[in-house]
């Protein structure tokens, strides 16, 4: 059958418009792939062909060889052909033959949408593309479905080419969430694009020059505000060196960033804004590196003026406190010295007092005193000691006191004892 048609290879998948009669009636242009030229007249003269046998013709073999999952759908909206690549999205080529096309969409809304789109293609025969969830196996995949009208004499069908966009969809969702996060983040974030990828193995001077010329391609409102602009659009196209500190003072930072293959690194700087106010910033670079090539990078800026001012105020307060502590410590040391001296003086005084008390106690111990009742003889006037012996008064007093006696004689005794020598008149 293929040998009887020499023009077949040039006419495969040729795009045709609908018949003139139909155009006159409906005045619309259709986009239908005409497969008539792929068959001999004896095959198509009846106007009928079993689409399930499509794989036996060249076009079917072409579809079978395609690395993209491909389906063929008849006017009953049933799948009549599936190539081997359908397995890439979890389907069994043999098992899905005869099932409704809309049944491969797991949600009612997407199933209904697929049915509606398919009906529209059979009606106006125009190409249509839509995206949705498809489930041919245990996993649901996000796919793009390209639908194209086919015509074989009176037989019409729809060719469905399915692209698995799951990875791209996830990436898109992540990027959307990331972009949302970037825009609500309280730190200024900007994306810079390089004119070409840069290898870290190139000379540092060359890399620094290329990095300095990197252009800002996106960012959030906070980054624009920090730069004194109302929106990021007014900053787009600016080079890194026109926005970030890029003088000789910060050359060491960029050299270290390059030598370490563009890791996350930060540095602080101070500058004056458009109003002449002294501001402090923390700057961070994050390289987008793939296979040791820098493809681009993110730059983040955070206004840390309040933090620096707080740190400075805290440092000044700490210095004042340390000074006061030093002063107070000196006062306490001086007071302590006085206290130590006073304690030493007091200890010396107490020592002297104790010594004096000891001496006094010793002196008192040596002092002999008479006190209390003394038993004395009523006749001879002798005194009885504590041992019961009677002794002369002068002896007792001498033994019990420090007094001593000198003897004399009173007038009365002298007259009585020595009347010859003493008379009452003398």
Automatic annotation (TrEMBL):
In the UniProt record, does the keyword Coiled coil occur?
Answer: yes
Give the PAS domain ranges.
70-167
The highest taxon in the source lineage is Bacteria
Q: Which Pfam families match?
A: PAS_9
Q: Signal peptide location in the record?
A: none
What are the alphabetically sorted keywords of the record? Answer: Coiled coil
Q: Which residues form a coiled coil?
A: 307-366
Q: Which InterPro entries match?
A: PAS, PAS-like_dom_sf
Return the NCBIfam families for the record. sensory_box (TIGR00229)
Q: What is this protein called?
A: PAS domain S-box protein
Q: What is the lineage of its organism?
A: Bacteria, Pseudomonadati, Thermodesulfobacteriota, Desulfomonilia, Desulfomonilales
